[in-house]
Every structure is written in structure tokens, then in C-alpha cells.
Design goal:
The protein has about 100 residues and is of the alpha+beta class. It has one domain: Double Stranded RNA Binding Domain (2-Layer Sandwich). The protein has a four-stranded mixed β-sheet with strand order 3-2-1-4. β2 and β3 form a beta hairpin. The protein starts with 8 loop residues before the first strand and ends with a helix.
Length: about 100
């Protein structure tokens, strides 16, 4: 008998910047996400960077105009099997409005 344990990780907002202002160590995550979404990066895209607790993984979320908190939460859940911590949600709400 196999037992499968599904973990939910916690995502913490690290930064929100334009792609061209991101540190080099974060760029590969953003470029990979852009490829998945068939995006051509110009460098002017606004992106939120989340760190997944207890890992060295980052999840970028492109903050396209009109993107809601609910869409961001869904993206984090799908991409990182994570939920956004409450402090990060407060910060996001303040920045998106």
C-alpha cells in the first residue's frame, strides 16, 4: 500500500520589480515562467517574486494590468503547491490598489 502525502508550502513575497531590475540569480525563474506563458520579455514587465518556505525555489508572477489577488493565489497554488502567507497578501493588496 502506498501512502501519498501532499504538502502545501508557504509562499512569501520577496519583491516586486520590473524584470530589468531583478537580480541575476532570479532572472532564470522569470525567463522560464515567460517561456511557459509564451511571453516575449521587454524588461518593463512588473513581476512579483515569491520564495517557497524551506526551499530555495522562487515563483515569479507577472502582474499584468487587472490581475486580481485571487488569480495570483491560484497561480501560486498551481505553480508551487503553495499558499501565500497573510503578510504577503496584505502587502500585495496594498500594492495592487
Amino acid at each position: 500500500m502506498k501512502i501519498i502525502i501532499l504538502m502545501t508550502y508557504i509562499a512569501t513575497l520577496v519583491d516586486i520589480k520590473e524584470v530589468k531590475r531583478l537580480p541575476p540569480e532570479i532572472r532564470p525563474y522569470v525567463e522560464f515562467k515567460a517561456q511557459l506563458e509564451s511571453r516575449e520579455l521587454t524588461g518593463n514587465e512588473k513581476v512579483a517574486i515569491f520564495n517557497i518556505a524551506t526551499t530555495t525555489a522562487y515563483i515569479p508572477v507577472f502582474l499584468d494590468e487587472g490581475k486580481s489577488i485571487e488569480k495570483i493565489k491560484k497561480e501560486i497554488k498551481e505553480d508551487g503547491h503553495a499558499s501565500i502567507n497573510p503578510d504577503s497578501l496584505r502587502r500585495l493588496r496594498g500594492l495592487l490598489h
